[in-house]
Amino acid sequence: MYKYTLCFLKRKDEILMLNRDFAPVQGLWNGIGGKMKEGETPLDCIIREIDEETGISIKPEEVTFKGIITWETDLGYQDGLYVFLADIPSATHYETPQKTAEGILDWKKISWLLAPGQLGAGEMIPHYLLNVLNCREPLKHVCILQDKKLISYEFTHLS
Fold this sequence. Notes:
Protein name: DNA mismatch repair protein MutT
Radius of gyration: 15 Å
InterPro entries: NUDIX_hydrolase-like_dom_sf, NUDIX_hydrolase_CS, NUDIX_hydrolase_dom
Number of domains: 1
Cofactor: Mg(2+)
Order of helices and strands: EEEEHEEEEHHEE
Keywords: Hydrolase, Magnesium, Metal-binding
Number of strands: 10
Pfam family, one: NUDIX
């Protein structure tokens, strides 16, 4: 069992991203999420984190489990998280940029997040984001990092 969750809140062709003020991924755009509390399920955690970090109240049926993302470093560190997707209605107005206790929230175009050479988001995001957005079944995303650089990305169906 992993101890972290991550959610991409999608509205039309944009995703609400957080430029984090703190480690990990300090200074980079990432989805919304955080660490599970004792006794919390991944779904409970992501609903709480979305509310805490954005003020947006999401119901469990509005969030889709999209799989897990794991990573391993050349220093032997291994971890992972549960990844979710929430479609926000097109008419929803959520003003950004917005400074919060965690960092800056802003809507980012999906095309920008996936653009080759884009350095503003976490390095793994352009590799797995399309699968999170488009695959119906949950996937296991496996990322290998060396010297803080992604050197390998693979995915399989989560069984």
